[in-house]
Design brief:
The protein is α/β, with parallel strands linked by helices and 319 residues long. The protein is built from 13 helices and twelve strands. A hairpin with a 2-residue loop joins strand 7 and strand 8. Helix 6 crosses helix 12 and helix 10 packs antiparallel against helix 12. The radius of gyration is 19 Å and the shape is globular.
Length: 319
């Protein structure tokens, strides 16, 4: 059995592949990490299907992943199809591409399973964590939320609201940039009402942890670093004031200006506005004035699970 595991998280906006090796005594070492904005969910909410163009982008990205894996040696390969797998009538086409191109075992988790895996992956990269945690993973087609106490998950939920579908429904920038931040905030506030009701007494004095593209982009912007630094951005704290300021600044910029900042991946320059608006609305709903970013997510969570199945130990990431 190979000591190398590779997991491709085929997200509704971003495809992200993490490859890791077990080094003994439960230590896991990151070998390779790569990601690309694919926008797999583009148009799915409207048509119920992954478009031909999105399938073309998916095939191209999976080919890039395969070429990278070919240089790493034999690995156990897994692909996880998230919200699109649960939403699209032709999700089987994406599964077929993953099997044919990567030779991977494909999985479509329930929303709650995705939430727990993402939570486990995110917190595994944080060295210092408070007793009470509220966790958010704002994806392209859904958003996962988890509350834990002392490392034990109390509840997890998945809400069918993500940045791709949100932006498709609210293409405010096409009608000019005047008041776009305020309009996005208003629409995001409506989305936030779909989430579990706030119970501040549960996580008072606790910490909000957020993963995925929006959180990591804000971490890069707030710390004036490049988004390519990914892993080292885990643990960065971003205040609600900083997030509001960046929403206002980015809303006034053209696409080229946004990309020139170096903190935003190509393909995310429009979607980031909706992502920040949703994150802000959820911070306000749950009473947090800051969040801690983590670069870990579903792929890391599944890697931990797979390695833990190999032995009677609890694997941890090598520092």
């Amino acid at each position: 059995m190979s000591d190398l595991i590779s997991v491709a998280d085929l997200g509704s906006n971003t495809f992200r592949m993490v490859t890791a090796r077990e080094e003994g005594h439960g230590a896991i070492r990151l070998v390779d990490l790569r990601q690309k904005v694919v926008r797999l969910a583009e148009g799915v909410a409207r048509s119920g299907e992954v478009s031909k163009e999105a399938l073309r982008r998916a095939k191209e990205c999976l080919g890039e992943f395969e070429r990278a894996l070919a240089t790493l040696g034999e690995a156990r390969r897994f692909c996880v199809l998230t919200a699109v797998g649960r939403m699209a009538n032709n999700a089987g086409e994406v599964e077929r591409l993953a099997r044919e191109i990567l030779g991977a075992q494909t999985l479509i988790p329930t929303g709650r399973e995705e939430a727990r895996l993402s939570y486990e992956g995110a917190v595994s990269l944080l060295s210092a964590k408070k007793e009470n945690l509220l966790f958010l993973d704002i994806g392209g087609g859904s958003t996962e939320i988890v509350f834990s106490n002392g490392g034990e998950v109390i509840w997890e939920e998945s809400v069918a609201a993500g940045i791709v579908t949100f932006w498709e429904q609210n293409r405010l920038g096409e009608k000019g940039k005047k008041d776009i931040a305020a309009q996005l905030a208003l629409r995001a506030g409506e989305i936030a009402q779909l989430f579990p009701p706030p119970e501040k007494r549960l996580w008072e004095g606790g910490e909000l942890v957020a993963t995925a593209g929006t959180a990591m982009t804000l971490a890069a912007l707030a710390s004036k670093r490049d988004i390519a630094e990914g892993r080292s951005l885990s643990g960065t704290k971003v205040s609600i004031r900083e997030a509001r300021e960046w929403l206002a600044r980015l809303s006034a910029m053209e696409k080229e200006e946004i990309l020139a900042l170096g903190a935003i991946e190509p393909g995310r320059e429009e979607l980031i506005l909706g992502g920040i608006a949703i994150l802000l609305a959820l911070m306000e709903r749950y009473g947090f004035d800051a969040f801690t970013a983590s670069d870990g997510g579903l792929a890391e969570g599944l890697i931990l699970r797979k390695f833990s199945e190999d032995g009677d130990y609890r694997p941890v990431w090598a520092r």
